């Protein structure tokens, strides 16, 4: 009798586990899911995805599955069912359907860093709030803001830093550029002088970036746990600045944070927490993408003397045409730097900082005979498109001259994800490209 009961319990347990594993590997869908594998229960294929790579090429995780399943496949990362896409037409379609079929979405690690739970993600991703943030960022970092003084301030900042670096026996380029970009962006956002406070917060943000490619386990000793400590210090800094500004409304100077404080009188969604995490998110997003692309661009320039020579010739030609050789860069000169912008485009193409751009399906989406269920995450893989040999000849070769060829709208929008995605959710692509341009102009000298 005892053995019969025990055997029955074991059988039920095995049957339950088997049923659970089956359901995990075969999610419900009102149609046919794209091919792929959901990996192991709970962890999915997270471990394979996070294996680091030093190559500029598409990660082995993506390449293997593209070869096996095609440009559209399903997987599970960090416990979330996901469809990964390297299909250019579908990716273009997805970005055009924002707010209709899809919404902005983030991995759990990033969502926890910027205090986005599932509810607040939806609030930020769509509607009036989304529009407000876009207009606010464009007002402070868009074309008019750059023409009105941000361009000259950025140039002065780069001149000063280059002068300081010239006195050093050696420097770590990525660290120095990250610090420069971070300090300038922070000053532009909330007019804060980090030198007076003696805090090197750019280093803390660099550490925080590591959490974006880690499993979100807040356990002592893990990367995510260490990053959360740095995040709390950064959040405290921004919160303290916010309190100081709110306590002295007459001291407001009209920067990004000042504008949000003033708008709190009429916009109900603008709470202290919301403002703090918006500023934190902008800092986190801007300094890493700009500094990483600039660092990679400098590497390519040192390895390609012909590119460097043409850059110098373009810049010297502009200097010769100036009435005052000591004046700063004008907006007209910036727009006229054809080859410089080609170098930036090529660096952007090769520098896929983010492993993927995420959206979440609001409704079931039909694509190529497959169904992406509502609630699933969609990951667009920039590198798979930007390093596609069918679109770019010798895709791993740094060749700015490839941008001289006539480029159709299709090629720009479908084959160049950094520009497309940043137009939709970067909020200040013009500012980002400007900082990269100024860096490329000055740093070779």
TrEMBL record:
This is Cytochrome P450 87A3. GO terms for molecular function: heme binding; iron ion binding; monooxygenase activity; oxidoreductase activity, acting on paired donors, with incorporation or reduction of molecular oxygen. GO terms for biological process: brassinosteroid biosynthetic process; brassinosteroid homeostasis; sterol metabolic process. Keywords: Iron, Membrane, Metal-binding, Transmembrane, Transmembrane helix. Pfam families: p450. The chain crosses the membrane at residues 274-298. Belongs to the cytochrome P450 family.
